[in-house]
User: What shape does this take?
Amino acid sequence: MKSLVAGIILVALGAAGLIYKGFSYESKETVAKIGSLEATAEVTHDVAIPTPISIILMMAGAGLVLVGLKK
Assistant: This one.
């Protein structure tokens, strides 16, 4: 039963990776600091999800689903 649930989660994560192809997030970084005065900037970071990783996740998930169904 656990392998069935894990397989479904992996298939869903792989499909999401194929659909969205990546995500971005923002962080605050200090750009200058003079004494007690500090300047910060919001920086956007883009993270790409490689297509082969998404495909591998989906295949592994499908394998776990099949193993879970056989038990």
